[in-house]
Amino acid sequence: MLESKWGLRFVALILAIFFFLSVNNVFGNIFNSDDISQKSTKTIQDVPVEVVYNHKDLHATHVPDTVDVNISGPQSKLLKIESPDDLKVVVDLSGEKAGKYHEKFQVKGISNGINYNIKPKAANITLEKKTTKTMHVQPDVSQSDISNEYKIDKQQISPETVKVTGGEEQLNQIAYLKATYKNASKISKDTKDVAEVNAYDKDLNKLNVSINPGQVDLKVSVKPFSKKVKVNTKT
Question: CA distances (Å), 199 to each of 39, 151, 166, 203, in order?
C-alpha cells in the first residue's frame, strides 16, 4: 500500500490525526493512571432495602422500599458501581423477637477502600407476630374500563375469599381487598380475565401484606346503554 500515492496519503492522514489528538491530550485521561486512582464521589439513588429477620414467624412493617447511598473512594472502584443493583443495603434483625426497633442501614459486599453514607441512616421497624385471616375480595372494574357504548351489567370473581398474612396491626388497617382489572383494552363484550388482588386501607393506600392466592378469575358482563322512549303517532 505504501508504494502507491493514495496509500502514502492515507498513512499521512492517520499520523496527522494521531499527533493532533496527542497534542490536545485527548488520550491523557484514558492512559493516565493517576486519574483512575484519584478519589471520587457519587450518589446511587433508589437502592432497594432488604430486612433480615425471622420471616417464618414474624412480619416487618414501616420498612422503606429504597434509600440513597453516597459512596466515595478510588475512581477505579467507583466505576464498577453504576446502578442500584450494584449495591446491597440491609437491615439486620436476625434473631430479634416481636417489637419495635431503631436500626441503621448497612451496605454489604462493598469493596475495601470505599466509604459510604446512607440517607436516611436508619429506620424505625416494627416486627409483629405473623397472623393469617380469610377475607372477602371485591371485584374492581370501573366504568372507565368499559367502552363508551356499554355499561357494567355484572361483575364477579372466583374465588371470592383469600387468605391474607401479615402483622396484626396491618391486617386491622385493611379496608378493602380489590381484584382490579388491569387490561389496557376497553371492555365491549362479556369478558374473562385474571385480576391481581391488593389490600388497601381506608385512604386507598396499598398495604404490604401477603395474599394467597394473589390472583383471581374475573368475569365482567356488559350491556349497551338504552332507555325506553314513548312514540307518539300522528294520523
Answer: 47, 26, 11, 11
